[in-house]
Specification:
The complex is a heterodimer of chains A (about 260) and B (about 375).
Chain A (H helix, E strand, L loop, with lengths): L10 E12 L2 E12 L3 E6 L5 H8 L7 E6 L2 E2 L5 H9 L1 E4 L11 H12 L4 H14 L15 H12 L6 E5 L7 H18 L2 E5 L3 H7 L2 E6 L4 E5 L2 H7 L3 H7 L4
Helix pairs in contact in A: 3-4, 3-5, 4-5, 8-9
Chain B lengths: L4 E8 L2 E7 L1 E2 L9 H4 L8 E6 L4 E2 L1 H14 L5 E6 L2 H11 L14 H10 L1 H23 L7 H11 L4 H24 L7 H39 L2 H7 L4 H38 L4 H11 L2 H27 L5 H33 L2
Parallel strand pairs in B: 2-4, 3-5, 4-6
Antiparallel strand pairs in B: 1-2
Helix pairs in contact in B: 5-10, 6-10, 7-8, 7-10, 8-10, 8-11, 8-12, 8-13, 10-12, 12-13
Classes of the chains: A alpha/beta (about 260), B alpha/beta (about 375).
The structure holds adenosine-5'-triphosphate (ATP) and magnesium ion (MG).
Chain lengths: ~260, ~375
């Protein structure tokens, strides 16, 4: 369902009958969707329906209660620790709250994965850090601590850290919440540009309708009441062809 | 993969074409941007970059180009990327849309300056402590006049955290201290054949001094540190700001219930510790030809009600001091995870200093009062 008239592409992430819970509290169940290489996959749904939870299951922070998530056919949780590390190095993640290390400067935050996983000299790392921060519009803020910049700037710095290693799969949790319209627009441009230039796949949680339609090529709508997905497919397709009024209402702001 | 190289081709005096070749990636070694600056002279107007054969790139190339751009900034040279792939140009432009920030962050002082500042601020520090104490006293009075916003449910919750949950460690600690005192006494008193007086030593030692002090030391590490960490984290998350804007004083809502809980539970813990300490002493004593009956009989004569009360009064004061040290460190916490760590350390260290000083003071006071 969903991708009408698109030629089949290699599937990067696939959810098969995925269920998620916190203890005895079921959040979502029976999720099925596929994410192809180069997709910008939007996770949609009302507040509290489990979008961040789904993202955290995808990046292996929580183990699914049922079903599985496959990365190129391989499940994260049955992989060996070495394989898991190799998979994680290919991911870049931003968190809803920014999650910068508060005792490190922005430059040190962004440099951390580079120091850990590459053999670059400290000068090269400094150049890389400057470039990544410039990409998110934070050139010149290298020596600031997270407590010295604004919330939106923290979010963008988190993004710079997520893309430090040129990851193949990018997971963003509400990257544009708290940004002004122009910065949000620049962020959309950046996401598309990263996708085009590095062939990355993007999984993004967002409420911004404008950016859902501008960048989303595929997506899933989660419902808090029925605790399962209502629909999956590209946002434009869902808006026009979804069988669920709720999905249409969400995508048209109920108008 | 091929090594990354630069080829210079001077088209005219004002124009040089730089061909980039090979693998410009994170795993490769790049030529230094200074190779480019060696080419520079006043007549040069434009540097044109083009891609050669065998050309691979990732973020590393962009980082390098930006380093070159910064280097050429001071000259009047134009930077022309028209010969590079479109993606490179787009990323480069994206990175240059927002002009760099020129403001400098607030500096963190050097170690020496920190020390000097510390000493200079010692006076302020004392004033702040005094202000905190005063405010706490006023807030407590307000609470007793039923005008504060601290809730009983909070107080009971904190009592539970600091009281019953601390019992296991207090038990272990008290029994061992009682045993240590008994051994110490046994060895000395045996020389005079006065072994039975070990009960006096253990009893008075526990009740007047060790019970209160050791319980307080444990509680400053356990509860005082926890208070500092809780309030410090709330400070980091802007929760304390949120309380203030809601019109709720952090002092009322956060500090008072914690303080009350601690000064309620700590005397009880102290009594518990006294009893267990005497029991621990008894274990040792009865192992060495003193019967339980003799031991208990001797204890009854040794300890007066006044002795017990000195210990309880002490632990009451200690509880207040621990809560003050913990809450003050937490409220004064900075806005990073490292600051929370510092606040916790601060809380424990100051609490222990307060304890020792207060203990000495109280002992002198009791001596002169003849209690
Ligand atoms: N760590 C946790 N432990 C227990 N329950 C949780 C936890 N985190 C979230 N929940 C519950 O799971 C549900 C989904 O939370 P989640 O954070 O995934 O929502 P969301 O869709 O990301 O919402 P929002 O759009 O507001 O960010 C919520 O009802 C929440 O109460
Ligand atoms: Mg969320």
């Amino acid at each position: 369902m969903g991708q009408l008239g698109q030629k089949p592409q290699s599937v990067v992430i696939e959810a098969r009958g995925l269920s998620m819970n916190y203890g005895s509290n079921l959040i979502q169940s029976n999720l099925h969707f596929q994410i192809s290489k180069g997709d910008v996959f939007v996770i949609m749904g009302g507040s509290g329906c489990g979008k961040s939870t789904l993202l955290k299951h995808m990046i292996g922070l929580y183990q699914p209660a049922g079903g599985d998530i496959l990365f190129g056919g391989q499940s994260y949780f049955t992989a060996s620790p070495e394989q898991q590390l190799a998979m994680r190095k290919r991911w870049g993640v931003t968190y809803q709250g920014g999650a910068l290390f508060s005792d490190k400067t922005l430059a040190e935050n962004v440099a951390l994965p580079l120091v850990q996983y590459t053999t670059l000299t400290s000068k090269d790392i400094r150049d890389m850090v400057r470039y990544k921060l410039a990409l998110v519009g934070l050139a010149g803020f290298e020596d600031f601590y997270p407590s010295q910049i604004s919330g939106g700037m923290c979010k963008r710095a988190g993004l710079a850290r997520a893309i430090a290693l040129d990851p193949d799969i990018l997971f963003f949790d509400e990257p544009s919440a708290g940004l002004d319209p122009l910065s949000a627009r620049r962020l959309d441009d950046l996401i598309l540009q990263l996708r085009d230039s590095t062939g990355a796949t993007v999984v993004i949680v967002t409420h911004e309708l404008a950016s859902i339609f501008a960048i989303g090529s595929n997506g899933v709508y989660l419902d808090a009441n029925s605790k399962t997905q209502l629909d999956t497919g590209s946002p434009g397709y869902m808006l026009n062809h979804s069988k669920h009024d709720l999905v249409k209402a969400f995508l048209s702001r109920g108008e | 993969m091929k090594q990354a190289t630069l080829n210079f081709h001077k088209v005219s005096d004002s124009n040089v074409v730089v061909t980039v070749q090979g693998s410009w990636t994170v795993s490769g070694v790049l030529p230094a941007p200074e190779q480019l600056s060696a080419m520079l002279d006043d007549r040069l107007k434009t540097v044109v970059f083009t891609a050669g054969d065998d050309f691979f790139w990732d973020s590393r190339l962009l980082a390098w180009l930006m380093a070159c751009q910064r280097m050429l900034e001071s000259t009047h040279c134009q930077f022309d990327l028209s010969g590079l792939p479109e993606d490179v140009r787009d990323l480069f432009n994206l990175a240059n849309t927002v002009p760099p920030n020129k403001a400098l962050p607030e500096r963190h002082a050097s170690l020496f300056h920190q020390l000097v500042n510390r000493l200079a601020r010692l006076g302020d520090e004392a004033m702040a402590l005094l202000a905190f104490t005063g405010e706490l006293a006023l807030t407590l009075c307000r609470w007793f006049a039923q005008k504060g916003s601290a809730r009983w449910s909070d107080i009971i919750n904190f009592c539970h955290q600091s009281g019953p949950s601390a019992l296991p460690i207090i038990t272990l600690q008290s029994v061992l201290i009682g045993m240590i005192l008994a051994y110490l006494g046994m060895v000395q008193l045996r020389q005079f054949g006065a072994e039975v007086y070990v009960a006096n030593l253990v009893g008075v030692g526990m009740v007047r001094e060790m019970g209160a002090l050791m319980t307080a030391v444990i509680m400053s590490g356990r509860t005082g540190a926890a208070y500092a960490a809780q309030l410090g984290t709330m400070q980091v998350n802007e929760e304390i700001d949120a309380l203030t804007t809601l019109g709720i004083k952090p002092m009322d809502y956060l500090v008072v219930p914690r303080t009350l809980a601690l000064i309620l539970t700590i005397p009880l813990l102290c009594l518990y510790s006294n009893i267990l300490g005497m029991f621990g002493g008894g274990l040792v004593a009865t192992n060495m030809d003193i019967t339980w009956l003799m031991y208990l009989y001797q204890l009854r004569d040794a300890i007066s009600f006044g002795d017990t009360m000195t210990g309880v009064v002490k632990s009451f004061v200690f509880g207040l001091l621990i809560a003050m040290a913990g809450c003050r460190a937490g409220l004064a916490c900075g806005r990073s995870s490292a600051a929370v760590g510092q606040a916790t350390t601060n809380a424990v260290v100051t609490a222990i200093i307060y304890l020792v000083v207060a203990d000495a003071g109280l002992n002198i006071l009791f001596y002169h009062l003849g209690i």
